[in-house]
Amino acid sequence: MLRQAAEAEPPIPETALAALIVGGLMVSRLPTPSIKYMKLQRQHRILAGACFAGLTALLIAWPWATMTVGLLIYIGSIPFAIMTHHPRYATKPLP
Fold this sequence. Notes:
The protein is mainly α.
């Protein structure tokens, strides 16, 4: 099994495309969601730990598929981040 994995060629075009997309997002000024400001409630900590363990297992079992799905979710969340960050879409404070 290890010999087959070592002999398999990496997907060069897909890898290059993913690297370009991620690199472009890293240097862009687009507002993106950040977990830095998220607060995790006490009753959700066990669920968050289970989700993190599941994500880790998926990354070990299927790394490229998991990273591709994560990238697509990240790209899909950008319009929502723009709507919440842009002053035109922000809610107006009550007088």
